[in-house]
Amino acid sequence: MIPQRHDTSRVGLLGGSFNPAHEGHREISLLALKRLRLDAVWWLVSPGNPLKDAADYAPYEERLKTARRVSDHPRIIVSNFEERKGLQYTVDTLETLRALWPQIDFVWLMGADSLAAFHRWRDWRGIANLAPMAVFSRPGYESAVRDAPAAQALAPFRLGESAAGRLAGAEPPAWVFFAESANPQSSTAIRARAARPSS
Q1: 3 falls within a domain
Q2: What does pLDDT average to over the chain?
Q3: Which of 27, 78, 112, 151 is 20 to 30 Å apart from 187, CA to CA?
Q4: Is the pTM of this model over 0.70?
């Protein structure tokens, strides 16, 4: 999906290293398409995460290829936008996307594990003011929606799940938490299994 200047789509943005992409990414994307009434979800495959060790990364093209295979849906678009634009931080990505396509209603998508560390992201308050957010439950991070520093700071702006269909286009800061998503897969666990010697 390549937006045109007249396109007024509702687009979810799922950023990350996708190292590797897995069914959990696809599951929350499908849930977002349905519950947020989105036209598309873009997977923004990051060249690198400043909070993670670069030595742990598979080659960028390999991560893109795996993401395209796993996404397997006409409305999930795997993008190398950040790599092409030389972007590293989410706040810069959102500012650039909004400048390029001001008519699109973007929603930032993330797992509760990311919410737990959100206060460590560069200008996280700026991110919250640039786009409404949808947070998806992850096993082991159920309390993040209550206890995470960013969740506590943004608590006045949390909407109920019944408002999810109106989140795209809502004035940020605004966010919704989905308790029903709890896929146990994680990129870290997948890498750990792959690194174990075969017996």
Answers
A1: no
A2: 89
A3: 151
A4: yes
